[in-house]
Amino acid sequence: MPVSVTPDWSFEREHWRRGYFRVAGVDEAGRGAWAGPVTVAAVILPGLATEYPFRDSKQLSAAQREALAGQVREVALSYAVEHAWPAEIDELNILGATHAAALRALARLDPPPQALVTDYLKLRAGLPISAPPRADALSYSVAAASLLAKTERDRLMGELDSQYPGYGFAGHKGYGAPAHRAALQALGVSPVHRRSFAPIRALLGNPEPLLRSGGA
């Protein structure tokens, strides 16, 4: 069983030392899913070295995530959540669409960020950035963003489950679970599936990658 890690302010503190006190944490949910959006959240938390209960959303139950996401919204100086839907993912590729959604979320923050910490997402935002791997488990700001991204995307997948019954989106959240594979075989590809992803391309009879622009 994975060891639970407690986040701290180590990465934010590097920016504080340089005079950048509004540090936004950025994280995404749904990059590997076959259906639905990739969802990106950006969060600026207040206080220098205040301890929070926020944790990487993958370490928590659904009920814990919902409760903590509510706390994030209550205490954040600013936060925003943006989505890149399948059409954008298919046009830009998943990395490019994730970057685009992240930049939209950052543009909505008020007050705006002075620096960033991301979970290995090397954004070109014109700001000082730390992008370590596993930042959602190591940084309070990124953990807070992971909670908002995960809970908001899960909510949307529940709505898509009602709009497109039979696929089981509320359960597997669009990932490649056996139940999802079986539903695709029985029902075919829905409008919210990512046509540029290999399993969906194969079902559409197009095993070759789609030509896509940008996204590096």
Automatic annotation (TrEMBL):
**Record has DNA repair as a keyword:** no
Which subcellular locations apply to this protein?
Answer: Cytoplasm
Q: Which GO terms describe its molecular function?
A: RNA-DNA hybrid ribonuclease activity
Tell me if Manganese is a UniProt keyword of this record: yes
Provide the binding site for a divalent metal cation: 27-28, 119
Q: How is the cofactor bound?
A: Manganese or magnesium. Binds 1 divalent metal ion per monomer in the absence of substrate. May bind a second metal ion after substrate binding.
Q: Which cofactor does it need?
A: Mn(2+); Mg(2+)
Identify the EC number(s).
3.1.26.4
**Which keywords does the record carry?**
Cytoplasm, Endonuclease, Hydrolase, Manganese, Metal-binding, Nuclease
Query: What residue range is the signal peptide?
Result: none
- The enzyme's first-digit EC class, named in words, is hydrolase
Ranges where the RNase H type-2 domain occurs: 21-209
Catalytic activity of the protein: Endonucleolytic cleavage to 5'-phosphomonoester
Query: Which SUPFAM superfamilies does the protein's record reference?
Result: Ribonuclease H-like
| PANTHER family according to UniProt | RIBONUCLEASE H2 SUBUNIT A, RIBONUCLEASE HII
Family classification = Belongs to the RNase HII family.
The job of this chain, per UniProt, is described as: Endonuclease that specifically degrades the RNA of RNA-DNA hybrids.
Protein name in UniProt: Ribonuclease
